[in-house]
Design goal:
The complex is a heterodimer of chains A (117) and B (411).
Chain A lengths: L3 E10 L8 H17 L4 E7 L4 E4 L4 E4 L6 E11 L2 H9 L10 E7 L7
Antiparallel strand pairs in A: 1-5, 1-6, 2-5, 3-4
Chain B lengths: L7 H17 L4 H22 L5 H19 L3 H7 L9 H7 L2 H14 L6 H11 L5 H8 L3 H17 L9 H24 L5 H19 L7 H16 L23 H14 L7 H14 L8 H14 L3 H15 L1 H8 L6 H4 L2 H13 L3 H14 L3 H11 L2
Helix pairs in contact in B: 1-2, 1-6, 2-3, 7-9, 7-10, 8-9, 10-11, 10-12, 11-12, 12-13, 12-14, 13-14, 14-15, 15-16, 16-17, 16-19, 17-19, 19-20, 20-21
Classes of the chains: A alpha+beta (117), B mainly alpha (411).
Chain lengths: 117, 411
């Protein structure tokens, strides 16, 4: 089956939440690594965390951005590979990033042009 | 991918706070805590993406060091500190990172331990301060472990921190003499961290053993250094190993506390018992006998007895007598009564018990009434036994202890 690529946009609540304690960080790190190992073949690009400031450019003018809803910011992205949206959802659902109630992941299929013969 | 050692984040937090605060000065401890916390978060994010680096320890040290210098620069205090402390530079040298991995780093932890145990800070604050800054527990985690509120834990912590901050100028390098004078206080804090874990009736085994393991870890570093090579500290470490060896057998599958005679002795950790024996032999020099010697002496008798029935109660009674001499306490007296009852019968135990008038606080402890109830029952005085049993159950501080008493005293 052909694998499709999915862009996963990680959103989290804006504003400072209470930082995790060192023990909690250890748990988070362990969970993350376990997830990475489990879905090794599905993770195409671990992506990156995005900086907090940015600009929004349109024909009219350049605005300070990023445009965010007050309550959430885009914290990072990654690209995963899966045969279907359902499988992609499964991979993302188990990722530790979805664990906290304030965060969510938006999954969008990356439509690729058909291969030339 | 490189695996991190257990408790890596927590221990790194403690070590980095201890070492960096000594470097930039106690008055900046607040900033150091922030710098270290941020370094750990950065590690979490970066390592999750790129994998754990080859030298995670050095990686963190470098980032935390840069963080604290950044904060200090922002506060315009850096030039001031630089004057005081010539060895702080932006780029840390390769040698410096290497020392992070060597014994000098342990030295930093030890020095911090002696700083924490300042005689002007109340002991309950010292414990919380050590747990936060050396073991890396958060205030919330400490409150769970010590059965106190978060507010209380924070108060205790900030009292110690404020004291050290305000008196940072009066805390020059501790001299050898100071180390000797402060060693008993250091031993006591380690002992209390251990007993908080060991005696805790927290139902989660991991939470209890964690505190004991922290105490053993710090004590092991201590006996490894010139300042800790004393019979008293050796005995303390022996005591810890001997007690923790029995910890896995203290609860059953239903998470109920088990008494010594109910425990499955095959679950006792022989490795810890061996370590205990070793350190006890190291402790048996000199002419001073500390409470730790007496307590380790009691613990070793239990550990070496093949069964409850074969326990050498005579030796245990003698150790309790020694313990009463070094550290008089009605609770030790009560324990001795139990040992006497085992050796000479319940009647003899009761006679011993009533030799002295118990202090008020002992009358309000469940242990006292539980012992009376047990001894009376064994003497056939059922009515007296029942009254004391009810008193003990009413005074039980936790549901786990209550359950244990109900099973034992009402059967």
């Amino acid at each position: 089956m052909t694998m499709k690529k999915y862009l996963c946009v990680v959103r989290s609540a804006s504003g400072k939440c209470k930082p995790p304690s060192p023990s909690e960080m250890e748990d988070m790190y362990d969970k993350f690594n376990a997830w990475k190992n489990k879905f090794e073949s599905n993770i195409f690009d671990m992506g990156a965390k995005l900086g907090e400031s940015g600009k929004v450019v349109s024909q009219a003018k350049t605005l300070d951005g990023p445009f965010v809803e007050v309550k959430e910011i885009i914290g990072g992205f990654m690209i995963i590979e899966a045969e279907s949206m359902d499988k992609a959802i499964e991979v993302v659902k188990e990722s530790p990033g979805v664990g906290s109630p304030e965060s969510s992941v938006e999954i969008r299929e990356m439509i690729q042009p058909p291969m030339k013969e | 991918m490189k695996n991190l050692v257990e408790n890596f984040f927590r221990h790194e937090y403690g070590h980095l706070v201890a070492v960096l605060t000594q470097k930039v000065g106690l008055s900046h401890i607040h900033d150091v805590e922030d710098a270290v916390q941020n370094a750990l978060i950065k590690a979490l994010e970066t390592w999750a993406q790129n994998g754990t680096p080859d030298k995670p320890h050095a990686w963190l040290y470098k980032v935390a060091n840069n963080n604290i210098l950044g904060i200090l620069r922002q506060n315009n205090t850096r030039s001031e500190i630089l004057k005081k402390n010539q060895d702080i530079t932006d780029s840390i040298t390769k040698e410096e990172i290497e020392t992070v991995l060597t014994s000098e780093f342990k030295e930093g932890i030890l020095k911090w331990l002696f700083i924490c145990c300042h005689p002007s800070i109340a002991i309950d604050s010292q414990i919380v301060f050590a747990l936060k800054t050396l073991c890396g527990f958060s205030i919330k985690e400490i409150s769970i472990r010590l059965f106190i509120t978060e507010t209380n834990a924070y108060k205790r912590y900030s009292r110690a921190r404020t004291y050290l901050k305000n008196h940072s100028n009066n805390l020059p390098q501790l001299k050898q003499n100071d180390h000797c004078l402060r060693l008993p206080a250091v031993n006591k804090v380690l002992y209390l961290i251990f007993t908080e874990g060991y005696l805790s009736s927290h139902l989660q085994y991991s939470i209890r053993s964690e505190m004991c393991e922290e105490a053993i870890r710090l004590s092991s570093i201590l006996v490894d250094s010139p300042m800790g090579k004393t019979p008293e500290t050796f005995a303390l470490l022996a005591l810890m190993h001997l007690h923790i060896s029995r910890l896995p057998a203290r609860v059953n599958n239903a998470n109920e506390l088990l008494l010594l005679e109910q425990q499955d002795r095959s679950l006792w950790d022989q490795n810890h018992i061996q370590h205990g024996l070793y350190w006890l032999s190291q402790a048996s020099v000199g002419d001073e006998l500390s409470r730790y010697h007496a307590e380790a002496g009691i613990a070793i008798e239990h550990c070496l007895a093949a069964s409850f029935e074969q326990t050498n109660w005579d030796k245990i009674i003698k150790c309790y007598e020694l313990l009463e001499k070094t550290t008089p306490s009605a609770l030790h007296q009560l324990n001795k009564v139990v040992a006497i009852a085992q050796l000479q019968g319940a009647e003899a135990g009761l006679t011993e018990l009533y030799k002295q008038k118990p202090p008020e606080w002992l009358l309000e402890s469940y242990q006292f009434h539980a012992v009376i109830s047990d001894l009376n029952r064994r003497c056939g005085k059922q009515k007296k036994a029942d009254i004391s049993a009810q008193r003990a159950i009413n005074l039980a501080p936790t549901p786990a202890i209550k359950k244990s008493l109900e099973t034992r005293l009402k059967s």
